[in-house]
Amino acid sequence: MDSPSVVVVGAGLAGTVLGRTLQKRGWSVRVFQHTRPGSATPVAAGLWNPINFFRLIPGWRVEEALPAMLDFFESEERDLGQPFLNHRPYVQPILHQEHKLQWDAAAANYPRWLEANWQGAGAAGLHDYERTWGVLAWGLVREAGWLDVEGYIQACRLRWQSQGRWVDALWTEAEQVERSSVVDARGVFAHSGSEFLARLKPTKGELVEFTLPNGPASVMIKRDLFLQPLGGDRYRAGATFEWHDFSPGSTEQGKAKLQAGLVQLLGEDLSGAHDFEYKAGIRPASHDRRPYVGAHPGGGNRWVFNGFGAKGVLLAPLLASELTAAMEGKGVLNPEADTKRLGPFHSAGLAV
Length: 352
Known about the structure:
Layout: E1 5-9, H1 13-24, E2 28-32, E3 47-48, E4 51-52, E5 57-58, H2 62-80, E6 85-87, E7 90-94, H3 97-109, E8 114-115, H4 127-133, E9 137-141, E10 145-147, H5 149-163, E11 166-167, E12 181-184, H6 195-199, E13 203-211, E14 220-222, E15 226-231, E16 234-238, H7 252-266, E17 274-283, E18 292-295, E19 302-306, H8 312-327
Parallel strand pairs: 1-2, 1-12, 2-11, 7-14, 12-19
Antiparallel strand pairs: 3-10, 4-5, 6-10, 7-9, 8-9, 13-16, 13-17, 14-15, 15-16, 18-19
């Protein structure tokens, strides 16, 4: 029996995870990728975090998504022969009593994920920050970290190129292969000119990478910005959220916000930072903060894998497995993510 055939349109993080999942399940995969300015994946921080920092509650489906994510990327590390996962606890300075009460209550409710009075500041090199910020206590998020998105995407691309499965070109309807399924995973560039695009609620994010000698290398820090150690003396901080300006590059307004956040985050240490590199991308967030996963509402043998926003690392492996099962007629999609919630569309068009 011939393998089922699928074209994955878009090889950002979501499309890459889905393509690899389908391939491991025996599908014959072709991947179309045409990177455009403003794409989110090339500048993604790749963070995963089981907790919503604002509300201090576990994220959507995290009990299922986190082990699925770790299993998937650990398997990818073995298969592709290089490391991608960077496990780092995520810490937050607790600066006032109301915030401490919130953390104490959350840690009592979710002890797997949270610790309200973390004592590791000295070992993590945070004592100077502790004094500068006037920290009452530290909150710790366990089982957090970041994925080397750039390294992972490049490794998958090289593998697909070696297999003759990679097409570096725009997708058009003329590329349709008879009896082949098509999955659109192009982020904010998906279904250009269609009703689907109007459902996305994209946000532009800007971040900055820089060199910081003797920075805190063993933890990620969350204040207003996140501070992410990349190895050596290199760090990343961000990110901004902009819902109106979707220009593809960094802006002076975004740089000013990042600079103000760095002043607050690093204080005097900022004077030692150098080699700043500003980046920007447009996240394909959904209208209701749930990904779009399922059959294309316009019908045909078309599918959608999109709308992950900043949660692609954590959620894409679980939902890629569920979509693959649905495409095989063996599974039911989660109703909160299923594209059925979008209602019918007038056109199934995928052309650019």
